Each structure stands twice: as structure tokens, then as C-alpha cells.
Amino acid sequence: MEVMLEPMFVGLHSTSVPHLEALILRGSASQRAGSSTESELLQLPGMTAFPRLRPLEIDGVPCELSPPGLLLNNVLSLNLVDVLNITTEELLGVLHNSPFLERLELGRSPTACPSETIVAPIHLPRLMALHLIFMPIPVSNFFLKTVHAPKCSELVIVSQFPESPDDVVKGCLFTSDTQHFNPVLQTLLTRGRHKDIEVTNFFPKMQFLLNFHDRDGDYNGLLDHGVVRLDFKFHSVQQIEQTVHWLAHCLGLDTPKISIRLFVGGFDEARWMDILDSRTTITHFAFYTLPHLYAIRPSPILTHMAQPTLSRWPLHEMEEFIFGVADDDELQDEAVLKMLRERYGPRDVNPGDSSGGPSNGTSYPNPLRRIRLAVDGRTSSYMLNEVRKILPEATASLFLE
User: In terms of Cα–Cα distance, which of 365, 269, 285 is closest to 321?
Assistant: First the structure.
């Protein structure tokens, strides 16, 4: 049942509906905007009136959630979105009375940590999915600290937009007081058939998206098919670097190096990529240029990939490379070809060295198995032909962005 009008809700409040299995409350535009007064708060009936109720969703409806107004003894899924009046203390009271919850989704509800510095932990032994959407990072961290869910197999955290410049992930999320969650996090970070990290510069904002998931197709997937999804909005490259440092620490705690797919759009800095490259195996790299007015041409990322360090090439294990351009850009095209020639073209071999390795001791990168180029007009055929000359054994193709 989906209830959207107050008269229907009043009738539901005064009637026992023993066969009701699902309840969705959606608010009006004025309620969602927060124009309702406190006197208009709706008090939910005790859930004893709905013994078969399993999912409960409240979307944009100011409600009285303080016990005994809501006892979720039977509810398995609770989704609160834009319940603007709710406080953390009220929600904690509800969760204490929800021992059978399997799914908890909070969207902008609540948006502040409780006033008390010490809060008793909430044990939800059956909770499998925890979604914290558009919440300030400290509030998300509070729920990670307070909710003990050893069986959690799906975690989604999306930062509030925009975060303040000082509200970075490092030091604010998965802090020392959330150590009980570390075993769950480690398990989540090793699961998922597809492990994707996307970093995009939507000038002047930046997005960092980690999505380890099982769904085929679009690497963004859907929230309901995520295993772990962390989506952060940032203001500076420094915040990206701090987050990558934090993630590298999480990935390097007790797990072997995992293989990931990396998607980068609109960035010129490569330093944060080296941090990620040192802690993971980047097998798939997609690089997209954006038409920023002040973007550097050619991209320093392409230049960086064309130059080995003393010990190895950047993205040494890369097996698939995707290059997309915003428009005809000969400088970027030539930079891509130069990078491929430097990494995979003919090489000088030291006399007596049967391994074919370079003279400075740096091992060559793994050979590319596949390369895909965006169709960008007249240069597409030229680029494809040049790539096939450099990488005759790789599968090279064009795609339409």
C-alpha cells in the first residue's frame, strides 16, 4: 500500500490492517520542502497493528518517530528519505526496537550527529544492507560506529553535496571508533565481480566513486546491485589524494592486491594514480578528456604513462585501455600514440640479455590485450590504423561515446 494523502493516513492510523505487508508514505512538495509545522507531524501507529508488515518507506513525510509511536518488531526493511524533523536520538530509539531489520536506507535523515558523546551500540544481527545517502560524512561515520552488523554484505555511502572543503574522507570515515566494522569492510572490499573506481572532474567539482559490484553491463550499476559503493564529492585534487591514501590503507590492511578497473575523466594530475597503482592491480584503464577551457594539452597523465620509473612502468598490469575525447584534439591523439609506442613499441635489447628487458632494470609493462578508441570524426580511422601498427596482436576497435 502507498499512502500519499493525510485523510488516507488518518484512516489507516485508526484501523488495524492485519494483512498489510508493505507501507510507503510519500510527502507533498510542501512537506518535502520543510514548510510543515511541528503541530502537523503525523504519528505513526504502533506496528503491532500490522503484524505482517515487512518493508516500510517514509519519503518526505514529517513523522513522529519517538517510541512508542513506532515499534518495528516485524519490519525487515526501513527506508527514510527527507524526514526532515527526525533527530538521530529518535532514530536510535526506533532501531533499538527493530531487531529483525535486514535493510536500512537513510537519505538526508538525519543530518546531524547526536549531542551525546557516548552512545550505546545498536546490534542488528540480521542487517545485510546499509545505505547512507546524501548524509554528511561525520553522520555516516556515526552510524558505522553505532550500528553493529556483522552480516552486512552491501554498503552504500554517498556524501552530501556539497561537502564543506574541510570535510574530507580521511579522518572522518572509518575512524578508530569504527574498528568493529573493519572485518565487514575487508570482506566487502574483496567481494564483487567488478571492482570499479571512477574519478571525474566536473569543473569546479570533483567526484570519487568506488563501486565494487556483481552486476554486468554499465559499470555504474544500480544501488540495489551494489556490494560496496562509496560516492564522494570534492573541491580539490588534494582531497582526492587524501581519499586515495585512505582507500589504499583500507585495501592494504589484510588483503592481497585486488584487480580494479579505473575510469578517469577530466584530470591532469597523475600523482594520486600512482598511490592507487601501488596498492591495487589496475587491469582496465579508461581515460576521458573533457573540454575544460584551461585543461593542459597534451594531458600530463598520458605523458606520465609514457615514462617508466626506476622500477616499473605506471599501470604496469594494464590489459585494456579505453581513450575517449571530447572533440577533435590532435595533441591528445598524438600523445596517446606516443604513449603506446613508448610502452609497447620496438625496443632496444641489451647485448646478451635474452629477457628483452630495458637497460635500467625496469621491467616492461604487460602487453595490452584490448584497446578501444572513441569515434571523434575524421581522425578515427587514422588512430585505429596507427594503434594496430603499434599493437598488432591486440584487439583494437572504435566505439561511439
Answer: 285
The candidate with the shortest Cα–Cα distance to 318, out of 287, 286, 285, is 285
Q: Computed over its alpha carbons, how large is the radius of gyration of the chain?
A: 26
The residue among 31, 85, 87, 80 whose CA lies nearest residue 55 is 80
**Residues near 339 by beta carbon (within 8 Å), at least 6 away in sequence:** 302, 303, 305, 306
Q: What is the full per-residue pLDDT of the chain (401 aa) written as tens digits?
A: 444 434 444 445 545 566 778 888 887 766 665 555 544 666 665 555 677 778 888 888 777 666 554 567 788 999 988 887 788 888 888 888 888 999 999 988 888 888 777 788 999 999 999 999 988 888 898 999 999 999 999 999 988 765 565 556 767 788 778 888 888 887 888 788 888 999 988 766 788 898 988 876 544 444 445 789 999 888 878 888 888 877 777 766 555 678 899 999 888 788 888 888 888 899 999 998 766 555 677 888 999 999 998 788 999 999 999 998 656 678 888 899 999 999 998 866 554 444 444 545 567 899 999 999 887 666 678 888 999 999 999 999 988 76
The Cα 41–Cα 29 span in angstroms is 15
Distance (Å) of CA 224 to CA 67, 68, 153, 221: 30, 31, 12, 8
Q: 234: which 3 cell numbers?
A: 570534492
- Model confidence, pTM: 0.82
Give the Cα separation of 41 and 3 in Å (integer).
15
What is the secondary structure of 101-143 as a DSSP string?
--EEEEESS--S--S-S----EE-TT--EEEEEEE-HHHHHHH
Q: What amino acid occupies position 237?
A: V
* H helices present in 165-223, as ranges: 182-190
